[in-house]
């Protein structure tokens, strides 16, 4: 074989590895989901030191014949940065692997202020994955709004209304994402200063609004949501829940907060939502504002891992809702900024 052919072969094998890595990467998600379901991060955390494979097998009450499968699950999750593995020796000088948490798996610990396990369980749920199998059929077709409807016969909000378990999964998943806002809310004082009322539109079970209501007790916060999402939720003096449809109307307030709402919809719907805000502005003294908390794709500014996370989120928005993750230009181009100005000058 000539050296050129060897080079070609190497390149092709490299390309094959690249292809296999990407086409099989869903198994990383599946293993991570499995680790969350088994509570592996919590088991390691409770020990307060790296946990050996036999200890993990015993804590999980697995049959000994599952030990090797567990080792292989931990091996992939180590490779993808969720655990770190060291070798330890027991009193009989036997060598064992021991697993420690990494900063990524520390985000999976239950009973911690920032626990994203519910988000992992949500996005790896079959209901979220199924629509991807209908993407090409949906792209060729001309009618249904998104592949979720093609696959499930109903849109995601209707599906959540009909499936109690998925509704809980969805609400808990998004609520866990909102908890991360605690990290920055104190730095955002200037955004909330001077407001007397705020409506979080499509605010789920109020996880984000609760953080705001606690950080800024003088603001009367309310959450506008679909009735099945907010049924029986506890209210406080400055946090109320209002059942309604944001496409119809939005309750009156100084400020309107949209967290991860605009990315669910095309521009036409987003502009309609902003118009509904304009109708609902409580005061016209310069305090009124729309606060959008959403994803901005910025390949130049972000690290590659952040861009990849945003592009994957965009793929989720394409398959599960008629939505999109917008670039900075797309946010600007579609006139959202001028909408905000006209709101302020109403
Ligand atoms: C992507 S989730 C975002 C939830 C929340 N803002 C968060 O970030 O945690 C979209 C939310 O919009 C709500 N929603 C969908 N359609 C709605 C409508 N027509 N009126 C009010 N809320 C709606 C859903 O129930 C869901 O909770």
UniProtKB/TrEMBL annotation:
PROSITE patterns: SAM_OMT_II (PS51683)
A molecular-function term among this protein's GO annotations: O-methyltransferase activity
Cited InterPro entries: COMT-like, COMT_C, COMT_dimerisation, SAM-dependent_MTases_sf, WH-like_DNA-bd_sf, WH_DNA-bd_sf
Keyword set, alphabetical order: Methyltransferase, S-adenosyl-L-methionine, Transferase
Catalytic site positions: 263 (proton acceptor)
Domain O-methyltransferase C-terminal: 134-332
A GO biological process held by the record: isoflavonoid biosynthetic process
Pfam families named in the record: Dimerisation, Methyltransf_2
O-methyltransferase dimerisation domain boundaries: 21-111
Name of the protein in question: Uncharacterized protein
Organism encoding this protein: Citrus x changshan-huyou
């Amino acid at each position: 074989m000539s050296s050129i052919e060897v080079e070609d072969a190497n390149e092709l094998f490299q390309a094959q590895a690249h292809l296999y890595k990407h086409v099989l990467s869903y198994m990383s998600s599946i293993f991570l989901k499995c680790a969350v379901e088994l509570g592996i991060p919590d088991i390691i955390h409770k020990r307060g030191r790296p946990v050996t494979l036999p200890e993990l097998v015993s804590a999980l009450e697995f049959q000994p014949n599952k030990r090797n499968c567990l080792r292989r699950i931990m091996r992939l999750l180590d490779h993808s940065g969720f655990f770190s593995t060291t070798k330890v020796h027991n009193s009989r000088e036997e060598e064992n692997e021991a697993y420690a948490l990494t900063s990524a798996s520390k985000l999976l610990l239950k009973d911690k202020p920032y626990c994203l396990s519910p988000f992992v369980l949500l996005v790896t749920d079959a209901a979220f994955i199924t629509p991807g199998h209908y993407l090409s059929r949906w792209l060729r077709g001309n009618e249904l709004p998104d592949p979720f409807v093609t696959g499930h016969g109903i849109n995601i909000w209707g599906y959540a209304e009909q499936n109690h378990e998925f509704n809980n999964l969805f609400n808990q998943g998004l609520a866990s994402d909102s908890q991360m806002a605690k990290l920055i809310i104190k730095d955002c004082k200037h955004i909330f200063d001077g407001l007397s009322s705020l409506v979080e539109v499509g605010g789920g079970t109020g996880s984000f609004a609760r953080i705001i209501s606690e950080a800024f007790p003088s603001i009367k916060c309310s959450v506008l949501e679909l009735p099945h999402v907010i049924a029986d939720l506890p209210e406080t003096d400055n946090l109320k829940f209002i059942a309604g449809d944001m496409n119809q109307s939005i309750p009156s307030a100084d400020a309107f907060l949209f967290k991860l709402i605009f990315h669910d919809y095309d521009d036409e719907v987003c502009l309609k939502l902003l118009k509904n805000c304009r109708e609902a502005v409580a005061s016209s003294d310069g305090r009124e504002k729309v606060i959008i908390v959403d994803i901005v794709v910025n390949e130049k500014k972000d690290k590659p891992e952040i861009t990849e996370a945003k592009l994957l989120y965009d793929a989720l928005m394409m398959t599960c809702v008629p939505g999109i993750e917008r670039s900075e230009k797309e946010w600007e181009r579609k006139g959202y900024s001028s909408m905000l100005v006209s709101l302020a000058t109403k």
